Amino acid sequence: MTTRGDDIGSAELPGLTALLYAATARLDAHFAACAGAVGLTASQANAVHELAAPLGMRELGRRMCCEPPNVTFVVDRLEERGLVERRPHPSDRRAKLIALTPAGTELRARLFAGLAVDPPLAGLPDADRRALRVLLDRALHGR
User: Fold this and answer.
1) Are the C-beta atoms of 136 and 55 separated by less than 8 Å?
2) Spatial distance between the Cα atoms of 37 and 15, rounded to a whole number of angstroms
């Protein structure tokens, strides 16, 4: 039986899982604080973050790791605030695309600016952050 911090078959890398959990928790806390600073919940900020271009509700939910009712709730709140709008889908008249409004685009820029201030991985040199990105991409996507 393994525990959260155990690394199966990786005696040379003890605690890797625990370190990844701790890094994720720190990144989540930073993201939530930046979301709050621009008046969003973490879920709303996640949606705004993913809306670089218009997306269908299903794709937005997949990217947010949310169930459809949760995505609908988040989009409804953002729409009430004038940050997103529903547009007709070009190839499926039953579906809608979710797009940022100009106010949503401005808020997204403010969110990204906040995320760049004292990010959790700032203590790593640029070369180490680039290497970490390559390694995580390889681990998660086989690239």
Assistant:
1) no
2) 33
H-assigned helices in 65-123: 68-80, 102-115
- Look at residues 98, 90, 92 and name the one whose alpha carbon lies nearest to residue 60: 98
From CA 35, how far away is CA 44, in angstroms rounded?
Answer: 8
Q: What element of type H or E holds 129? A: helix 126-141
Please tell me the distance from the alpha carbon of residue 50 to that of residue 74, in angstroms, as a whole number. 13
| Number of C-beta neighbours around residue 102 at 10 A | 9
Q: What is the pTM of this model?
A: 0.82
The percent of residues in the chain predicted with pLDDT above 70, rounded, is 90
Coil vs helix vs strand at 65: coil
Q: Please give the distance of CA 65 from its chain centroid, rounded to a whole number.
A: 9
Question: Which helix or strand (DSSP H or E) is residue 96 part of?
Answer: strand 96-100
pLDDT digits (tens, 9 = 90+) for 12-55: 566 888 888 999 999 999 999 999 999 999 999 999 999 999 99
Whole-number Å distance between alpha carbons of 109 and 34: 12
